[in-house]
Write a structure and sequence with these properties.
Elements lengths: L2 H11 L10 H5 L8 H13 L1 H12 L8 E6 L4 E6 L2 E2 L1 H12 L4 E6 L6 E5 H17 L7 E5 L4 H13 L2 E4 L6 H11 L3 E5 L2 E3 L2 E3 L1 H9 L7 E5 L14 E3 H5 L11 E2 L3 E7 L7 E6 H14 L8 E4 L6 H13 L3 E5 L10 H9 L3 E4 L1 H9 L3 H4 L8 E5 L5 H11 L5 E5 L33 E4 L12 E7 L9 E2 L3 H9 L6 E9 L5 E6 L3 E4 L2 E4 H9 L4 E11 L3 E10 L8 H18 L8 E5 L12 H8 L17 H13 L4
The structure holds 5'-O-(acetylsulfamoyl)adenosine (7RM).
Amino acid sequence: MDEQKLHQIVHEADNVVPRPTPKEFYEKQPRKSLQNLDDYKRMYKESIEQPEKFFGEMAHRFLSWDRDFDHVKWGSLKEGVISWFLGGKLNACYNCVDRFALSTPDKTAVIFEADDEGECRKLSYQQLLFEVCKLAGVLRSWGVKKGDRVAIYLPMTPEAVIAMLACARLGAVHSCIFAGFSTGAIRERIFDADAKVVLTCDEGKRGGRITHTKELLNKALENCPDVEKVLVYKRTGNPEIEMVEGRDYFWQDEVREYPGYIPPVSMDAEDPLFILYTSGSTGTPKGVVHCTGGYLLGAAMTTRYVFDVQPEDILFTAGDVGWITGHTYSVYGPLALGAATIIFEGTPAYPNMGRFWKIIEKNKATHFYVAPTALRMLKKSGEAEISKYDLSTLRTLGSVGEPIAPQIWEWYDEKIGHHCCHVADTYWQTESGSHLIAPLAGAVPTKPGAATLPFFGVDAVIIDPTSGKIQEGNDVEGVLAVRSSWPSMARTVYHCHQRFLNAYLRPYPGYYFTGDGAGRDHDGYYWIKGRVDDVVNVSGHRLSTSEIESVLLANKKVSEDAVVGISDDLTGQAVIAAVQLKDPHIADDEDSLLALRKELRMTVRKSIGPFAAPKSIIIVHDLPKTRSGKIMRRIIRKVCSGEANGIGDTSTMINPEVVDHLIKAVEQQFGVKN
Ligand code: 7RM
């Protein structure tokens, strides 16, 4: 963690006056979830001091149970046992679909905005129920039952939502794989989750281009012999798609035979709802497991209280169901509240930079939720496109995935929100399931750049990483942890509880460790600094340096490599690789160096995905290491950022002479002077 910067952040915060939710917010929709800051404080206090009472009531208010729970909260972080609503039974699909198909069947549930502007499709709650049941019928006939894992490799289309809900209906555990992932990453996830069935499509459409979804999946499945069935949605209908006989079937053909209603399977609150893979600092991606009751409650409550979503609202979460944001705020959160969700297949830049705004105007979206990286790009592209559209239906603007710089926050508030919206910087993680720290609409005044105050039930603490001591009071900084479990917290890492304990519960026994550095200012507001481990965040995509390192290492020309993230104006962080070659002469002339870099970048693109490809590859003679042989990424990071002066302690280094070589190589190849 960059301590100096953190000091500065917390210090700057002293001058910022908290801003209340603009009055226009409730002129647009007068029903209030919360009245004021005192409401928040009172409810927060109760949620921490009497979680059983607080969340017991919330669980009854927000969810429909087949059987009531016996215990609200059970276990402790110290023991590594976390459970909520034990004894309770419910079905997530029933809660997100059937309830509203019964009460408001014609109300829109899903609005599909395709990559091509003209193509749009709406599904009412009744239609959604029909589609979900049809698909669930196919899956059930294939033997998919409670507890089985089903992989979903689909782009942002209604079918992704239908697929998730169909799994939930049967009690099968879905594992979505981001459509931007390539073969290696797909294979790894399907293999680890031990999925027997994959739901996918023939091709995708994105930014005016075709993506070869099925082709990539086919390659990945060459090494996944346990996959028995693949259901392929015809998105483009390209007849050339390679289908494997006896394994691959077309979605549209198969669903025909099945009825428009099959009953949901009643699940225990603690039965897993889904697995979602996320990058950590060590090893392969972790299959984070979320459970039915607690997760769904967290999704519903945060969607209501942070964003103030009401049933008549239309949410546009410009994320992807391949990430947690898509799970919680494109699918489960809005649908659990009976609202409408916009599923957008394309990119913000196609056919032009006005695409988001056009979607908002056309659909009268009330909520918009996106990562700062997109906002930075849109801000750069100027205001011409923005002013063409009527954005006055918007009430809440959300930000997620990385810290939002105060200037970007101000821009968002002014140009998109016209100072009439609640602007919510939401801090959370795949592991947290739903918002951890975020301002509640109408209740918590905001400060540009601050995630503000913790959500109900989140007992946030700041720990001094050196002493391991809790930092009491305000104006403190350190690493962010949580003192007790909250309902939507991940329960384990799929088939590897030890990894769960090691990553989250053992670093500070009795606490959940977030992996992020943070400060708490004089108002008790939290300012998130970023990861303190080897996780990099490129355009809101979470990547582990070790994952990219091992892909590069698989290239025969590479003897060793180290990957670091450095800050980048556009993407937040950028991936930089320092590579040591087996034969250093390969890179002697410009042409072969260029070719080598291209080849290495391509390896990463093909294996993990285009977004993980290093921005720069620096060829080095040697990597900085400790006496015990550990690569010192911190040194590479500092030198690549032009901060060699701030390298700090090198006493544990076995090869201090490497620093000078590195400085030279970085200057020559990367143009950064130290
Ligand atoms: C939702 C999501 C999690 C990591 C997390 C942080 C960073 C997320 C914010 C943020 C500053 C924010 N899940 N992060 N939100 N940093 N301010 N509002 O992104 O699992 O993919 O990533 O993202 O480092 O630990 S994630």
